[in-house]
Amino acid sequence: MATEVTATTTATRVQVRRGLSFLRIAIALQTLTIFLQAVSAGLLLTSSVGETLHGVGARVMYGASMLYVLAAVLAWKPGGGPARPIGHASVFFVLASVQVVLGIAHVPSVHVPLGVLMFGLSMLALGAALRPAIGARGR
Asked: Which residue of 29, 60, 63, 87 is most buried, as measured by CB atoms within 10 A?
């Protein structure tokens, strides 16, 4: 009986770790794509290739924000992780949707500051997601 409980507990811990690892990867990918959007925005100002890169990057960033929502749900429901990242990912997905609309409408006065805000929020989420992993290694 005790062996069964221990095996179940160990399997649950492995599921939680896998879910949180996928979540960390999704947040890192999202942060990277937002940073690359800033780089391509700079290219947009200086070269003709920048517009194409920024347009493609917008689609990739939007997909990364969808992946973040999926990873948050998968880390929570089947993995037994915390539900808080779902709210963070959902808010970020809404911000990404607003960002896409503002970019298509050519409203740089809001589009650019929102992009900076999104990068900062993504860095905070990445730092929060990595903090437990860094603390666990130090023990």
From this structure: 29
Measured CA angle at 135 (ends 132, 136), to 5 deg: 85
Closest by CA to 80, choosing from 4, 20, 34, is 20
Distance CA 39, CA 29 (A): 15
Gap between the Cα atoms of 57 and 96, Å rounded: 12
Q: What Cα–Cα distance (Å) separates residue 37 from each residue in 44, 68, 77, 121, 136?
A: 10, 17, 31, 15, 32
Q: What is the pTM of this model?
A: 0.80
Token pair for residue 12? 């649950």
- Give tens-digit pLDDT for 50-93: 999 999 999 999 999 999 999 999 988 876 788 899 999 999 99
Is the separation of the CB atoms in 39 and 45 below 8 Å?
no
Angle CA(16)–CA(121)–CA(128) in degrees, nearest 5?
35
Q: Is residue 75 exposed (0-12), middle (13-18) or buried (19+ Cβ within 10 Å)?
A: buried
